[in-house]
Specification:
The chain is α+β, with helices and mostly antiparallel strands and about 110 residues long. It has one domain: HIT family, subunit A (2-Layer Sandwich). Helix content is about 30%, strand content about 20%. The chain is globular and about 35 Å long. It comes from Nocardioides mangrovi.
Length: about 110
């Protein structure tokens, strides 16, 4: 999508601090980190949210999680949180599927 921020990062039109790539995914540091490790993992293809990705490309959906695990391991974390926000009402602000990988601090439950 021409106006999608994450599509532009995937295409290299906007810089991002990329930490990991696969055939289907790209992982880059969040510009407003909420933990010492805060990386966004996105599919290279545009899907609006996690449910749309799971229905349209289940293999890419699974690869987001395996990419997050690889990044956490590479960054030295065994414990981490992964979060998908699906819809504006729960905080999704960029409507390109993305997984938040968070680690390096204590996290409470339920998240706020």
């Amino acid at each position: 999508m021409a106006d999608c921020l994450f599509c532009k990062i995937v295409a290299g039109e906007i810089p991002g601090e990329v930490v990991h790539t696969t055939q289907r995914t790209i992982a880059f540091r969040d510009i407003n980190p909420q933990a010492p490790l805060h990386v966004l993992v996105v599919p290279r293809d545009h899907y609006a949210n996690a449910a749309e990705l799971a229905a349209g490309d289940p293999a890419a959906s699974a690869e987001l999680v395996t990419t997050a695990a690889a990044v956490a391991t590479a960054e030295g974390y065994d414990d981490y949180r992964i979060v998908f926000n699906t819809g504006a009402g729960v905080g999704q602000t960029v409507f390109h599927t993305h997984l938040h990988l968070l680690a390096g601090r204590s996290m409470t439950w339920p998240p706020g």
